[in-house]
From TrEMBL:
PANTHER family: BLL2707 PROTEIN (PTHR40265), GLYOXALASE-LIKE DOMAIN-CONTAINING PROTEIN (PTHR40265:SF1). PROSITE patterns: VOC (PS51819). This is Catechol 2,3-dioxygenase-like lactoylglutathione lyase family enzyme. InterPro entries: Glyas_Bleomycin-R_OHBP_Dase, Glyoxalase-like_dom, VOC_core. Residues 8-150 form the VOC domain. It holds the Pfam family Glyoxalase_3.
């Protein structure tokens, strides 16, 4: 029976060493980046968001070491920058946590937190969330998963933040590198009640639910063949590797990316070394 409180991919979390430098880097790539947010004290983290519809990217950095961010710090120490976890949209995080508990998994949370938000009119409000995580060990392909309930959507999906010079519209796929695509895809499929599908090149896709972005598990060799000519230096053979983004105008994308762009087949790509450990591949809508 499918999980009732999980809709599909909500956002991808890119863990970065220097939060402000990462935000500036993404601005240079033509993204509209939100003002910096600082999470509740027990989280010990800060972020910048890059808003699409219906999903988004989050640049996340550790500001103060806390018990809650131990896994994030371990990721940075071992892997460096890159996609550290993927969030699903939660209808109700408390009920969602109980759903996975009923399946024999011990959820982390639910956890409530917030961050102040400066709105376009200059007033300050708050973005409030309730999240729960699957157990840390349950990380298919080395990428942790969690679910995020947005209690204040209007302070996150702000129209002014959803327009990007590079014409990015939404996430189409999250690509995760692994030596064992079928095994890790099956693992995720069990966790979220979705059926994996093998692709012609040996990669395996797992739908996240609804019309949201798919997960794609593939080896680094398979990734290199999908995006020939794109340097993959900085990627691990296991872990979050790439985000495929839908562009509303590839000419605008190419102009905004400038010298960072690498054309690969029908895609315009930014190598991981120029996007904080994450390959960005822009495709036509």
């Amino acid at each position: 029976m499918a999980l009732k409180n999980i809709i599909g991919i909500d956002h991808a979390v890119v863990m970065v060493q220097d939060l402000d430098k990462a935000a500036e880097n993404y601005r240079q790539l033509g993204f509209t980046v939100s003002p910096r947010g600082t999470h509740s004290a027990h989280m010990g983290t800060g972020n910048y968001t890059i808003m699409f519809d219906p999903d988004y990217m989050e640049l996340l950095g550790v500001l103060v070491a806390t018990e809650h961010n131990v896994p994030a710090r371990a990721f940075l120490d071992k892997r460096g920058e890159g996609i550290e976890r993927i969030a699903f949209t939660a209808v109700d995080s408390a009920e969602g946590a109980e759903e996975i508990r009923a399946r024999g998994l011990t959820p982390i949370g639910p956890t409530d937190f917030e961050r102040p938000v400066t709105l376009p009119n200059g007033t300050v409000s708050a973005a409030k969330f309730r999240t729960f995580m699957w157990p840390t060990a349950e990380a298919p392909g080395g990428v942790r998963i969690f679910a995020c309930q947005h209690k204040t959507r209007d302070t996150v999906w702000i129209p002014e933040l959803m327009k990007h010079a590079n014409a990015a519209k939404r996430i189409r796929q999250t690509l995760i590198a692994t030596p064992e695509p079928a095994k890790d895809a099956a693992h995720l499929g069990r966790l979220i009640d979705r059926e994996p599908t093998a692709e012609a090149d040996g990669a395996v896709t797992v739908p996240s639910g609804g019309d949201r972005a798919d997960f794609v598990y593939l080896t680094l060799d398979q990734l290199a063949k999908r995006y020939p000519g794109v340097p993959l230096a900085g990627l691990s053979d296991r872990g979050g590797a790439a985000l495929v983004l839908v562009s509303g105008d590839l000419a605008a994308t190419e102009k905004a990316l400038g010298s960072a762009a690498v054309r690969s087949g029908a895609a315009l790509c930014v190598p991981p070394a120029k996007a904080n450990g994450t390959l960005l591949a822009f495709i036509a809508a």
